[in-house]
Amino acid sequence: MSSLRAVFLDFDGTLAEGGVVPPAHVEAVRRARGRARVLLCTGRSKAMLGQIWPIGFDGLVASAGGYVEVDGQVLLDRRFPSPLAARTVEVLDAHQVAYLLEAPDKVLGPPGVIGRIAQRLERGGIDPGALLPGLGVQESGELRSASFAKVSCYDSPVPLERLVTEIGAGVATIESSLPGGAHDGGEIYLPDIHKSLGADLAARAMGVPPCEIMAVGDGMNDLELLEFAGLGVAIEGSDPRLRAVAQRLAPPPGRNGLATLFAELGLTDTAAPEC
């Protein structure tokens, strides 16, 4: 029997592929909840997870650590300070970047952004029809007063490092995990926020020490999370820097990797609860 008491799962590239969760992963999550607490730990905002939440989770670390919820109780909701948010939007608009402003309650973007993101996803071999509808994007022509926790850039004419420099102090960037997206996409976020901080807050609320936690991820924004957990698992084919800090590997969603991993660790020995 596994000694793990909590599992933190990345979403894109770990639980799901192209926004689609394999049926075997749905079953694995539901069965594992009979052995441990299972939480989503994703760069996505809560507003992007409406179609995913019914799978059944004990908590959520969203916005790459900026939002934390356990058993329905919100423990953290961190957002860009208003002046920094306005400056960020100003710079993004000046360079005609295709971007999304992600908050727990909504996802906003400039006019035409849905079409531009769809084209970018197609170039990366991702079906936009499977991914975009679940994001619930609202287009708006005035975003400088918007409140948000993180920015996702999908099609930038200039390097994100230049955008961050122009925005000024208080933001950082990380490359996109989309296929071929490293040169024109990525995330802009508050540098003192990352997934492991959110996971630590959730773990403390549940009374679970890091040594009894497993974290699974495939992107560079999972690096600190895998270092935090007693058992860090990287998805096969992920960045070598991520694999270097992991204790083991798991197959990707296309090969039902979480189902295999959970079975090997004895997390799915019980029947799935009704949801």
UniProtKB/TrEMBL annotation:
A single Gene Ontology CC term: cytosol
Organism: Propionibacterium cyclohexanicum
Protein name (Swiss-Prot/TrEMBL): Hydroxymethylpyrimidine pyrophosphatase
Gene3D superfamilies: 3.30.1240.10, HAD superfamily/HAD-like (3.40.50.1000)
Superkingdom, taxonomy of origin: Bacteria
Molecular function terms from GO: magnesium ion binding; phosphatase activity
